[in-house]
């Protein structure tokens, strides 16, 4: 019985002991933290404060002072300061700092790879692309292979070296992330260059490689259609242009006129016009109203062209359609209102130029010109294929 009582009383008796041990441990830990905090130079905290205030110049000066005070801990600090110099555009300082760090006998193994990587970025930032490429090619065989190849891919795209871009993207591809979308665009760039030089076989082969990489690549079918058209194979051109409907119908507006011209070359202009009208009826957002009106005017006369255009605009009214509609109706407006109608059309026209344009879906960069490769965020095929109100 006595033993049972002591089993119950023992935790209560030992409670002050446990409390004292916890208090002592907390005191020891706190003293350690305070000691370490006092050992950190004040310049380090000043540098952090300056970074928070986005004063990178002051941050760099304070960090340089810390490095002078703590040469034994200079590896990480030098690496960081060099990156800060590069961010500020002081590439010469960044290169000098990282080269000095690279020459240190303590910079070996993974440390050396990291310094080389930063040095390569310095060279790239300074425009010394050949030196940067050499470093990143060397790093492909180490622990930073993936990061090095990503930078190389960016370099090859900037240099428009599409063959190397395809090779590097294939090396980067794996189950979790493939680069087939980008690879298709690289092949399309090669196909476009070959088509410009009238190397039709090469252009066709590259476009087919693009489709092999990404079967949804509308640009590849546009190029195949252009190749067939230039070679006089208008049936094949129609087949390639029409295939875009199943890939992504929004891009049909980019080949509308070429598709009509292929039908026209076969002696079937009316059939070509009917196809375009059918596209607009099925997909009202397509920017084909001007092409449809011009071809209708040519084939059916002004009255029929006006009726077709009015019907299509009323299906999905927008600024472009209203501008076209006013132009069609202005001749029939009461003369007393004609001047006002002209004024309204002029205002809509000016607004059309300012607020209707292509826009990148990734970064929202806006342009009156369509780009396959966004010049702002460097993403591929992110521009809206039809101008939109922004």
Polypeptide structure, described:
This protein is an all-alpha fold and 390 residues long. It contains 20 helices and three strands. The protein has helices at residues 2-39, 42-52, 56-69, 74-87, 91-102, 110-125, 129-139, 145-158, 162-172, 180-196, 200-213, 218-230, 234-242, 244-248, 256-265, 269-282, 289-300, 302-315, 319-329, 335-355; strands at 356-359, 366-367, 388-389. Strands 2-1-3 form a three-stranded antiparallel sheet. Helix 11 (200-213) packs antiparallel against helix 12 (218-230). The longest helix is centred in the first third of the chain and has 38 residues, at 2-39. The protein is elongated, with a radius of gyration of 33 Å. Mean pLDDT is 81; it is low at 28-39.
SS strand fraction: under 5%
DSSP summary: helix tally: 20
Poorly predicted spans: 28-39
* Tally of DSSP β-strands: 3
Largest sheet: 3 strands, antiparallel
Mean pLDDT: 81
Instruction: Classify the helix fraction into a percent range.
Output: over 70%
The run of helices and strands is HHHHHHHHHHHHHHHHHHHHEEE
Radius of gyration: 33 Å
> What distance lies between the first and last C-alpha atoms, to the nearest angstrom?
86 Å
Strand order of the largest sheet: 2-1-3
Structural class: mainly alpha
Principal-axes shape call? elongated
């Amino acid at each position: 019985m006595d033993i049972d009582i002591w089993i119950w009383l023992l935790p209560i008796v030992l409670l002050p002991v446990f409390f004292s041990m916890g208090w002592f441990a907390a005191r020891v830990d706190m003293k350690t933290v305070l000691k370490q905090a006092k050992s950190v130079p004040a310049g380090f905290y000043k540098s952090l404060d300056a970074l928070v205030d986005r004063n990178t110049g002051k941050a760099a000066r304070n960090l340089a002072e810390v490095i002078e005070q703590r040469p034994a801990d200079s590896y990480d600090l030098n690496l960081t300061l060099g990156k800060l110099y590069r961010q500020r555009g002081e590439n010469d300082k960044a290169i000098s700092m990282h080269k000095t760090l690279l020459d240190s006998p303590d910079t070996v193994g993974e440390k050396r790879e990291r310094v080389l990587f930063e040095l390569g970025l310095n060279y790239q930032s300074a425009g010394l692309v050949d030196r940067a490429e050499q470093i990143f090619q060397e790093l492909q065989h180490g622990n930073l292979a993936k990061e090095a190849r990503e930078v190389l891919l960016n370099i090859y795209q900037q240099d428009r070296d599409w063959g190397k871009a395809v090779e590097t993207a294939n090396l980067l591809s794996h189950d979790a992330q493939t680069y087939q979308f980008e690879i298709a665009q690289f092949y399309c760039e090669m196909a476009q260059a070959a088509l410009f030089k009238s190397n039709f076989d090469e252009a066709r082969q590259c476009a087919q490689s693009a489709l092999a990489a990404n079967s949804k690549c509308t640009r590849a079918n546009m190029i195949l259609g252009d190749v067939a058209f230039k070679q006089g194979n208008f049936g094949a051109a129609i087949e390639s242009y029409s295939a875009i409907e199943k890939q992504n119908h929004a891009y049909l507006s980019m080949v509308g006129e070429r598709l009509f011209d292929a039908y026209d070359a076969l002696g079937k202009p009316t059939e070509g016009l009917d196809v375009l009208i059918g596209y607009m009826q099925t997909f009202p957002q397509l920017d084909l109203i001007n092409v449809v009106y011009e071809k209708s005017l040519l084939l059916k006369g002004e009255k029929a062209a006006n009726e077709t255009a009015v019907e299509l605009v009323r299906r999905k009214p927008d600024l472009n359609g209203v501008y076209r509609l006013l132009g069609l109706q202005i001749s029939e407006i009461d003369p007393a209102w004609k001047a006002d109608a002209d004024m309204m059309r002029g205002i809509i026209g000016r607004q059309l130029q300012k607020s209707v344009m292509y826009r990148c879906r990734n970064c929202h960069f806006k342009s009156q010109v369509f780009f396959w490769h966004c010049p702002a965020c460097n993403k591929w095929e992110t521009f809206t294929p039809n101008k939109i109100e922004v």
